[in-house]
Each structure stands twice: as structure tokens, then as C-alpha cells.
Design goal:
The structure is a homodimer.
Chain A (H helix, E strand, L loop, with lengths): L5 H8 L3 H8 L7 H13 L6 H8 L4 E6 L5 H14 L5 E6 L4 H11 L6 E4 L9 H8 L4 E4 L9 E4 L2 H14 L5 E5 L5 H16 L9 E3 L4 H13 L6 E4 L5 H10 L9 E5 L13 E4 L2 H16 L10 E3 L3 E3 L7
Parallel strand pairs in A: 1-2, 1-3, 3-4, 4-5, 5-11, 6-7, 6-8, 8-9, 9-10
Antiparallel strand pairs in A: 10-12
Helix pairs in contact in A: 1-2, 5-12, 6-7, 8-9, 10-11
Chain lengths: 337, 337
């Protein structure tokens, strides 16, 4: 089946292309009778407007780009649900783009957006991202960007985040209360806003007890699970090994549990563990995992609402805002009862 | 910063719009010197071609649509990685669309695609999808569709799947070997190709032992985790409760473990459990979960390769093919040692 064009409709009805176009847009210039004829034929031939042509005319793609590092993390899958819950009813499409934690990918995706592929962007930066020129370039073209979860301090834009500093503090304080005195911190990037703030909270709680972590107790993990497993194992094999672990990213729970099992270290007896995670199955791990659980759905939903307001040019825009939605410490067996 | 148009470049250089356009496309009609001037100014003003305008001219969007029910399932997140591993190096963009398991969403996404938003589609149907007219309509417009994982029997298109019947058979046979005689099957849709085939394998293995499941042992779950929990709990509270459970979808592991814990049923002593799942943390559940693990990355990669061949019009297309990549039974403690 050939794609039915406006031109084909015009020929079939012996009308001009412009008349057909106006009839399809329900213009007052066209009689009701003609509109009826055009719409009937369009329906019969299954005419579909070309979205790119519509975009050229209307200067709007009706797409919202969601740029995230990955989908294999329950935070992002829940956040996407939150985003879609508000965006779809406004007639926008959600296009999901993955950077796979690489700055170069993030740059090329945002550069591509400059051409008008999306009307606005919801962005959670990659762990490699330390500068924001690619974001500023996009915003300079009147394409609004709203950060969610992972932000860049030096880009002035709306930011919807959770209380990462407080969460890091609360988690560490909980481990201290449970008797830990040497608490390790696992991070996937010290550059990343969320990791850095969680770590600041961790350091603050330690210093409240007159403690300072040794260099060896702050472990830099990566995207590679075998590498992470080896890093954690090495840390736990040291003579002076930690009695508590705060893992700043969901995927770090697995290497910690695996390494403890391999080394016959019991959780929580030998090592107490807390992980930032939204996984439902945290409760059925062995032992059930104490988590900092983030308001992922709410963060996505709020970020999308803020972006939609920015796109709605008829409304006066408030100045740039940062919204903080708090996370919760959910205590389970891995941190001791 | 205003979006820089071809018209602006033309005015600045005192050339016609058509000359600028040809120069940007490296046309032989334009002198090298003029091309140089145009490219220099375009670079200086950060000129970006409008992708929709390019699409209108070139009839190609360079987008591949990936339509899946959800991302909160490790199968799909791994499959997306497989898809991206081959698609990106060919200069295509991957756009991810979620149906949230709803047929109406799937229809509207595919209908939208008819306008040329994507060049080709990788599709895993929703659990509500039983007819394929919306897919046929899209293919009739010369937009190739490749199914992966979840397919529709009555649509003739390339299909990349795993051996669902064999996997269902192998898993059930394993439970029978471990002494189970009343094995329940948990499904989220009997319509869905994968669920139906896994169930056929299950029934075949049972009948090999002269067994037939009671109606109560085939449980229809949903997208709602509380509902699923209640369904499973009800099943396990029956006087004649199952001694084995085969869960056909990853997210069903959690309600099974939760319900067993609530009812003080030990896994595997009272109930042996196998789940179709690609979760890495299956190994650290309590007890570690026996899984049918699917070749998710490979399925995504193969589906994308087949689609790219279909898009490469220069190559002769083989007839429609079905590729079957086998899954593996990974035995852990939940099914008994």
C-alpha cells in the first residue's frame, strides 16, 4: 500500500492541495460540505498526516526526550512510569534515549535534539558528565531541559531531586547506631551529583562520631559487575576490613552479597549492609536488604509536570526551581535488627 | 539563541537558499570556494539541519522504534542493550516506546509510526494483543516489523524468539525429577505467545508422567503485584496445595517468595520454585532462585540485525524467518539440591 498524500486526495477530489490541507485542519475558509467529502475520502484511504511535515509547519514535534544512563535500574524504570503518567494525557510522546553512562553518547544525543526532534528534554546525566556546554547549547535553542535525579551544579535549570545528602547521612547514622565503626562507601562516580552528595552525608555522619574513612574504604566501582565483585572482595579480604557497607547504587548490592558469601562473611553479623535501591525484591534477598528507597515515580512525575509548564508558553514561567522529594530509610535484616 | 536557518545563511552570504542547500549537500553544481564559505559560516553559527526537513527530503528518519511492554523487567533492559549494540554503529537512533501491556497503546504507537516517524520497528507485543491488523497496516506502508520474544502467530514477519515450549518442558521435568507431583503454573496471559508455549511445555511434561493440573493450579496473574501476591497466597492456602511452582514471568518470583514466607512454607522443602528470569540477583535471593534464563541480549542483537538487513534495500531479502535462540535452565536451591 502506497502512502496516501494530500496531493493524491486533491487529485481524487479535483480540489487544490491547499483546499485539502485547510479542510483537514478544519479551516473556516472551507465549506462544511467540502470538509465532509475530504474527511470521508481521507478516512477511506487511511490517510495519515506526515508528522515531520506537521512539525515543520507547527514547529513542534510533540516529542519529549528522556535521556537516562540506563534502564536496568529500577529507579529509572519507575521514573519513566511517573513521566508517562503525566505526559501522555497532554498528547506528547515520550522518546527514551540511553547514554549507557557515556558522556560522548549524551553529547551526540543532545546535539541531535538541536534540530527539533524533541520539544523538551528530561535529563539524568551520565556518570562521566562533568561539564554542561552540550546542555546549555540545547537550552540556547529554546528547548527546555529539566534535570531529574542526576544534575549538574553549573547549569541553571529546573532540577527535581531527592535529598541525597540527608539520605547518605541517615543511612550512615543507622549503621553507626548498629555498632559499625568502619563503614565503607561504594560509589560509581565521585563526579556524579548524587554520589558526591550521598558521600558528603556519609562523611558528615562519620565525623559526628569522630571517625574518618581510610582511603581504602571508599571504593570506586564501575559498570562492569565482575570488576565490582573483585573490588568489593579485595576490600573485604583486607586485614582491617569494614564492619559496615553503604552502597550508593542499586547494582552494587549484588557484588557485596556475592563477595560476602564467597568469603563466608555473614550479613549482618560480620558486615552490615545498606544500599540505595528501589528493587521490590530487596525483601526476599538473603538476608533482606536495608535500603534507601527513592521516590522514583514521584520524581519522574514532577519533572515531567515542570517541563510541561515550561512548554506551555501561554503560562508565565516561575524562575528556575529545585524540588527536593525525600527518600526513605527502610530497615531490614541486612543492617541488623 | 535563535535557530539558524538556511535562509539566514543565504542572507548573510548574499547567496540563494538553493545554493546554500546544495553546498551543504556537497553538490557538484557548486564551486569549492562557495562550499568552503558556506560550511565555514554554518560551523561558526552552529547551523543544524532540521531532521524533519531532512526526513521529508530523504524519506528516511534514521529512527528505529522499539516497542515493548515495559522496562521494569531485566529481559527487556538486556534486549535493548543487544539492539543498541548493532543499531548505533549503522547510524540509526533507537527510540523506545512502552505499551504498558495495553493493546490500545500499542495500536496508537504503531498508527503514529505510519506517518514515517521510524524506518523500521522491533516489536514485542503487549499481553492484551490478540490480533495484528495494526501491525499489518504498518507493514503495508513498507515499514518493516521484526518481532522479538513475544510474537503473533497470524502475522507473517521475521520473529526472533527463544525455545519457550522446550523451556517450559525442561523446567517442569526438573521439578518432576525433584519429586514434585502437583505443579502450579503462573501466567500473566494465556493469549501471549510465550506464556502459551511455556504452558504447553509444562502440560506436555506433566502428561508424560500421567499428570494433569487442576484448574486451580493454573493461576492468572496481572500487572499488579498486590493482586498477584493475593492470588498466590490463596493458592498456597488450599488444603491440597502445590508442591512445585513454575512462574512464567520474572516479576512473579516476588509474590511467590513473599506468600511462602507469610505462610511459613519453606522453599524448597515445602514448595519447589522455578521462575523465568534474567535477574542477576536471583543468586542472592533466599533461597537462590532456579531460573530459566533467556538469551535476552542475543535476541535483541539478532532482531536488530535482521531489521537492518530489511532496511538495506540494496541487499536481496531472504524470505521471512524465525530464529530460535535457546534458553538455559540454571539450577539453584529453590528447586532442591
Amino acid at each position: 500500500m502506497k502512502h496516501v498524500t494530500i496531493r493524491a486526495l486533491a487529485q481524487a477530489l479535483n480540489l487544490s492541495v491547499s483546499t485539502i490541507s485547510k479542510a483537514l485542519r478544519d479551516s473556516y475558509e472551507i465549506s462544511e460540505e467540502t470538509k465532509q467529502r475530504v474527511l470521508e475520502l481521507a478516512a477511506r484511504l487511511n490517510y495519515m498526516p506526515n508528522p515531520y511535515a506537521s512539525s515543520l509547519r507547527g514547529k513542534q514535534s510533540r516529542n519529549i526526550g528522556v535521556v537516562i544512563p540506563e534502564v536496568a535500574d529500577s529507579f529509572f524504570s519507575l521514573a519513566i512510569n511517573g513521566i508517562e503518567s503525566v505526559v501522555k494525557e497532554k498528547g506528547y510522546h515520550v522518546l527514551i534515549y540511553l547514554t549507557h553512562e557515556q558522556f560522548a553518547n549524551e553529547q551526540s544525543i543532545l546535539r541531535e535534539f538541536q534540530g527539533g526532534r524533541v520539544d523538551g528534554v528530561l535529563l539524568s546525566v551520565s556518570r562521566e558528565t562533568v561539564s554542561g556546554q552540550h546542555i546549555l547549547d540545547l537550552m540556547a535553542r529554546d528547548i527546555p531541559v529539566v534535570f531529574f535525579d542526576r544534575t549538574l551544579a553549573d547549569v541553571e535549570a529546573d532540577k527535581i531531586v531527592t535529598d541525597d545528602f540527608d539520605s547518605g547521612y541517615t543511612a550512615t547514622q543507622h549503621l553507626l547506631d548498629k555498632g559499625c565503626r568502619q563503614i565503607a562507601y561504594l560509589t560509581i562516580s565521585e563526579n556524579l551529583s548524587i554520589s558526591a552528595q550521598r558521600m558528603e552525608g556519609y562523611l558528615k555522619a562519620l565525623s559526628g562520631h569522630g571517625l574518618r574513612p581510610s582511603r581504602n574504604d571508599i571504593v570506586q566501582c564501575s559498570a562492569d559487575s565482575t570488576f565490582n565483585y573483585n573490588q568489593v572482595k579485595k576490600m573485604l579480604q583486607r586485614k582491617k576490613r569494614p564492619d559496615g557497607i553503604l552502597a550508593s547504587v542499586e547494582k552494587l548490592a549484588n557484588p557485596v552479597y556475592q563477595a560476602c558469601r564467597e568469603l563466608s562473611l555473614a550479613i549482618p553479623e560480620h558486615v552490615k549492609v545498606i544500599c540505595f535501591s528501589n528493587l521490590e525484591i530487596a525483601t526476599i534477598l538473603h538476608p533482606p536488604l536495608t535500603t534507601i528507597t527513592q521516590p522514583a515515580f514521584e520524581i519522574g512525575k514532577t519533572a515531567a509536570s515542570v517541563l510541561l509548564k515550561a512548554l506551555d508558553k501561554k503560562r508565565a514561567r516561575p524562575s528556575v526551581q529545585e524540588v527536593i522529594i525525600p527518600s526513605s530509610l527502610i530497615i531490614r535484616e541486612s543492617s541488623g535488627r
